[in-house]
Amino acid sequence: MCNRYHPPRWDTFYDEFLAMPPENLPAGPIFPRRPGVFVRSHGELARDAVVGQWGLIPWFAKALPLKYSTNNARIETAPTAATFKQPWARGQRCIIPAASFDEPNWESGKNEWWRFRRADGRAWGLAGLWSEWTNPETGELVPSYTMLTMNADTHPLMRRMHKPDPKLAPHEQDKRSVIAIDPADWATWLQGSHENAQALIRLTAVEEFDARPEDTL
Description:
Radius of gyration: 17 Å
Strand content: 25-35%
CATH superfamily: SOS response associated peptidase-like
């Protein structure tokens, strides 16, 4: 899972994502339940960059803040989980722009934050779902989004992240990884069928990462 990431710069946003960045583009780092930006389809060709809460608010929520975490959604269960199944069924997929994201490494016995950038210097386009919730007390429309994750127990790099459960074997840890969509596939992720979008779900190859401990940056 991911609980901290850094948005791209305002001046490079449009060139990367073909969507006008909001004037109030949040500065990083972005944490759960704080404002961040997601990019969604707007018609056949256009895209919107929307400021919303990182932590998807389901339609049935009565009030905020939620009592449970929704900043990450497992791709394996998102189509059936109560919180996420409606956005999934409606094709409300989004791209989450990120210059980098951070993950904890516990190999030394204590938490050491690592930062993950793309090796080619471009921004990440991370797979997500978005929704809009109407506050029943004020009538305010509140956009929100979640970051999709997948199992990474077999990935040489991502399986090293997060604190291991000593009771479980290495292949049973269910270490999680964000899902990076290749820039050439962003349009398909945003506008394609469920089948086309599902075909884009993969772990990022090790050589595509520039990953290192935060204190060495």
